[in-house]
Amino acid sequence: MAGSFPKANKIPKELTKHGDTRIDPYYWLNDRDNPAVIAYLEQENAFYRAATVHTKEFRKKLFEEMKSRIKEDDMSVPYKQNGCWYTTRYETGKEYPIYSRKKGFQDADEEIIFDCNLLAKGHEYFNLRGISVSPDNTLAAFGTDTVSRRQYQIQIKNLVTGEIYPDSIENTTGSSVWAADNKTLFYVWKDPETLRAEKVFKHVLGTPPEQDELVYHETDESFNVYVYKSKSRKYIIIGSNSTLTSEYRLINADEPSAAFQVFSPRVRGLEYAIYHYGDYF
To answer: How many whole angstroms separate alpha carbon 86 and alpha carbon 81?
Structure first.
């Protein structure tokens, strides 16, 4: 098979950074919408399949052996949050997790929040992350990725009626945080090309996502942002981190319209974390 493998075309592209210029002959492969790129990848895949066809039965045997070592009906240790016990479990013969909770006591009736086996139907790939339950336990925001690009679509489910609201927020990290009013949601937007988490938006339930308010934009490309709630549930915190530097901003969870305040300004090379308890950080 030597000599029959696909060869990518070389198209010189000048790239200049910090005054230095280099030539990248394969830069054109970055364009995932270019038909020529798709055609080349299909050639590579066909070559791989032909080159490894003799390992088909061996690969199947390995897969079955590894699968046999996995406990199919597994369940996580229950954890308590805001009066409910939450678990993640798997059922034999099913590929995806089931997220459930029990109100008040561990022997209470199980309430299934998300059965990913149902949500995954019709998709070649499916991943759910970032389940965030509102303070009154009636709503759950969640992120789904159906293309394996780590670009999650956030939706909201009514845990009382079971309805998933039609509005969706595109191109996010999948994680979100509720304010104390049970209607304001903070989330992180990702750059569609670089996938850098760089903007924090505020969404109000019942309003179009197009009207969401930008509350923070991290302009330093070496940093990524995330948003979370303190363990005390009293503060909503925006974290901004690079390799050796961190910075945090926060507001009171009871005041979702307030401006985020810097906890301690970033200093290059200084990493820190913040925790809230009682009247102190």
So the answer is: 7
Would you place residue 3 in the very low, low, confident or very high pLDDT band (cuts 50, 70, 90)?
A: low
Distance CA 109, CA 85 (A): 11
* Residue 269 belongs to domain with CATH number: 2.130.10.120
95 in the same domain as 194: no
- What backbone phi and psi angles, to 5 degrees, belong to 172? -120, 175
Rg of the chain over Cα atoms, rounded to whole angstroms, equals 23
pLDDT at 15: 93
pTM: 0.84
The CA distance from 62 to 82, in Å, is 43
Helices (H) and strands (E) in the chain, counts: 3, 17
Tell me: do 150 and 200 sit in the same domain.
yes
**What's the rounded Cα separation, in Å, for the pair 72 and 70?**
6
pLDDT of residue 193: 87
Partners of 277 in beta bridges: 280
Across the strands, what pairs with 172? 152, 189
Q: Residue 148 to residues 60, 145, 176, 191, 197: CA-CA distances in angstroms?
A: 23, 6, 19, 16, 16
Residue with tokens 């159906």: 146
The helix/strand/coil state of 214 is: strand
Phi/psi for 110 (5° steps) reads -75, 135
Q: pLDDT band at 163, cuts 50/70/90?
A: very high
Phi, psi dihedral angles at 13 (to 5 degrees): -135, 125
Name residue 21's amino acid. T
Cα–Cα nearest to 228, from 260, 204, 258, 206: 260
Torsion of CA 55, 57, 63, 64, to 10 degrees: -160
* Domain identity same for 271 and 147: yes
